[in-house]
Structures are given as structure tokens and as C-alpha cells.
Amino acid sequence: MSPGTGTKCRSLAGYGRSNEDGGVFMSGSAPAFMHRACLYGSDEQFLAMAMPFLDEGLSAGEPVLAVTTPANLELINTALGARGGNVDYAESAFFGRRPAQRVAAFHRYWKRHSPAGHPAQVRIVAEPVWAGRSSREIAAWTRMEAALNVALAPTTISMICPYDRRIVPPAILANAGSTHPEQVDGARSRPSPEYSDPAAFAAACDASPLPDPPASAAELQFTGDLRGLRRFVARRAAAHGLTSDRVSMLVYAAGEVATYVKNQPPGSATVRVWEQPGAVVCDIRQMRASSDRDPFLGLRPAELKPEPGDGLWLAGQICDWTEIRSTDESSVIRLQVASRHNEEMAQPGIRYPI
Amino acid sequence: MTVSEYAVYDDGVLRITRSGSPPIVALAGEIDESTYPGLVGALETAADGHNEIHFDFAQVAYCDLAGLRAIICVTGADHDGKGSRRRVVLHRLSPELETVLRIVGWDGTPGLALNEPWHGDQVPEPGRLWAQQ
């Protein structure tokens, strides 16, 4: 496929609002977040989706970002030739290590291209890594796919998430239909009949309880003394061998969570800190808290205009894991950072999460 | 030279002093929900009538997101993207607090500058400000 007018026309035919397959993207239509999955089974099928999508963006002068495997990046570059130099790119594994950072990375890219008050049409091919993930990670990344529909709703990003049928397990492929309002095949898009309400989908992901804290965990009854809580977390994190900079970052995360919790009736909580293989964990647990919490609280990046989830968002950026579970009996926010045994942290130029 | 300095807020946890012109506001202690009202009041007093203001974070042990936001907003950048009205310079942020600022992306706020050299008559008294470095 060669770039040029012919390609642009063909891709427009595939994505235009009037397209009978239900495609909705076309330059000039009201910009909105669009989130589509593409289940591909070969390099050719990947390119049949990626090329018209990227090429149309390049022709329109739009920012275009490809986040995918090194192999797929090479396919794109070869197919685009010299025009590939205008494609922003990232290897999936390094563009937001955890779901919280991935959402922030997407948002950051969009915002960078959207000067104040002028939201830009931005295109992103975003292929998550699925191979080698734990079941906990698969659940978190699948939840993120659902959450993107809410978290990025205020943006004007047009996103296609490719899923490689050659290596992705069937259960994950099936969820792609539930988490994307549309599916793409080549240049054609159609509504996804399996698409689920994001909040309901996230609630199902959150149904399994977290493992109980160990009996040996250090414990603090938090009744609103934020300074006392910060000192407790700092002392315990240092006792578990975290370096002082990482102790400070965990304290920033825990401090924000505690500020949030303090303002949620009953306002008190039990705070526990422990070490488990590979991790230092800080668990903040309220009894008899309201369970009707917005499941996506803390997913939208903090702005200068304050929102209730800002502190939780920051905690999510700092920590390796931020997990929230709410039932009628209790509401738990659990933060996890890497332990002193993590050798990645011993390398120069480490990045967050800590 | 020694510039006159006076406390604009002090509750035992957070102490805020102001000196010089353009004003240097030295923050010392911890900024969280409990000291936030004091901070906001002090910011209004200190910034009033000035189009440039400096903050010294050398003795800030902790500053939460809300406190950081209040200080950034002294620029006026929160007024519906209408642009900055005041220049705000943050000095001697801890590396961790600077990381927080960069994660949130507020380091790019119009009117905000980080870690600029002090002006000639702004050099803080070393005995006080460097003591806890």
C-alpha cells in the first residue's frame, strides 16, 4: 500500500460517518474519544488496520502515535517508508508500566498536542502486552481497557487497540469485545455487540477480594492525624529497607490516600504496612464505609481544577499497584511498591512507579 | 545583606515567613489539610500587589497535592486558561517533591519557574535555610 491520495480516499470510505458498517471517524465530524479493538491474525491483517488509520492521520497533519510490539513497529516503518519519520512511537512494555501510568501516558500525549482550549484530534494505535502476565495483571489491564472509555472520554483521541490472535489467549480476546465500543477489521469499523457498561465491567473485575493482610503487619489506627500517619508509614517503609527517596514517595502516596479517606465517613481507618516477597504494602481499611464509590475515581489525571480523585490518581502514578475494594463491610485502598530486593531499582535512570 | 523578615503564619507545624521585594516566601514544616487554610491565607497576603513571587522550599518536609496546587495557582493559571498573571519561582524543592510536580505536569504551568538562581539581594541567610539540608 503506498501513501497518497488514493489511500486517503480508501481509508475515508472505511471510517466515514455515513459508512454502513457504522464507522464514525472522519475529519470534520465532532471530535470525541473513540476506542476500537482490532483482532488480527497475521502481519497483513495488522497492516490492513494500521496503515489506513495512521496514513489518514499523517495526511491530515494529526499527531499519530504507535504503541505496539517492536515487530509491529518495524512493520509500520517499512510500510510507511520515509513518512514513518512523522509517527511517534513507543514499545508497549515501556509506555506506562502499569495501567495507571498507561492511562496517564495517553492523556499526556493528547494534552501535549492540545494547547489550552484547543483539543487536538490525535490518533493512537495502542497494543497492550499480554504475554507472560500474571492473572492479577491481566485483570488490571483488562479493567483498564474498560476504564479508558470513561477516563479518556473528555479527550479527542481516536484509539485502536490491536489484539494478536496468534498469541493472545481466547478469554482475553473475548473481553476485547466487552471493553471496546467498536471493532475494526481492516479499514472497516462496526459496533461491538458485546460491549459492556464500563462501570459494570470494572465492578466485575473488582469482585474478587484482596488477600488478607498478614497477622504480622504493623498496624496504626488512623483517626485523622495525617502527620502521625505519614510518620508511621515512613518508619515502617524504612524498616523494610526502602531508600529514603522511595520512602518519601510512598509517604506522598499514602498521605494522599489518607487525606481522601479522612473525608469519607466514618473518616477513620486501620492502616497496615508489611513486606511480602518483592513488595512493601500499605493497606488503608475503613469499616462501614460507603460502597457506592465511583469505580474510576483516581483514573483521571489531576488538573489545576481540584477533583475528589486527584490524590488517588497521584498514588496510582507513584505506586506499582493501587487496588481498591469496596464492600458493605469495608473499603480498602491498598498500595504496593517494589521491595528493596528489586534489582531494577538498583539500575541508573529508574522510572516511576517506584 | 540582611533583609527584613516576618512571619505571616506559624501554627507550630507550618511556619511561613516573608521578606524582600519581590517577596521571598520561605515555607518551613509540613503542608497538608490541617495547615492548608493557613497556607492559603498567607499566600493571599504575600502575593497581593506583586507580579512576581519566590518560594523557598528548603525546609518543607511534606507538601500534599492540594498545597502544591494552591502555590502553583498563585500564577493565576487556573483562571480558565486565560494565562498567567503572576510569575512564581519555586526554589530548592526536594527531588521527591519535584518528581511529584513533574508527574502531575504542573511544572509546565505558564508563569512558573523552577530552581532559578537567586537574585543578588535574595540570597537567603545560610545559617537558617541551609541548616537542615
Describe the protein in words.
The complex is a heterodimer of chains A (354) and B (133). Chain A is 37% helix and 21% strand. By secondary structure, chain A is an alpha/beta fold. Chain A is elongated and about 60 Å long. Chain A has 2 domains: 5-205, 3-Layer(aba) Sandwich (Rossmann fold), CATH 3.40.50; 218-346, Heat Shock Protein 90 (2-Layer Sandwich). Chain A has helices spanning 5-15, 43-59, 70-80, 99-112, 135-151, 170-179, 198-205, 226-239, 244-262, 310-318; strands at 34-40, 64-68, 88-91, 122-126, 157-164, 182-185, 188-191, 218-222, 269-276, 279-287, 321-326, 330-338. A 7-stranded mixed β-sheet of chain A has the order 3-2-4-5-1-6-7, with helices on both faces. Chain A has a 5-stranded antiparallel β-sheet with strand order 8-9-10-12-11, covered by helices on one side. Chain A starts with a helix and ends in a 16-residue tail after the last strand. Residues 1-28 of chain A have low confidence and may be disordered. In chain A, helix 5 runs parallel beside helix 6 (170-179). Chain B has 4 helices and 6 strands, in the order E-E-E-H-E-H-E-H-E-H. A 6-stranded mixed β-sheet of chain B has the order 1-2-3-4-5-6. In chain B, strand 2 and strand 3 (24-31) form a beta hairpin. In chain B, helix 1 (36-47) packs parallel to helix 2. Chain B is globular, with a radius of gyration of 14 Å. Chain B has one domain (5-124): STAS domain (Transcription Regulator spoIIAA). The longest helix of chain B has 12 residues, at 36-47. With 133 residues, chain B is α/β, with parallel strands linked by helices.
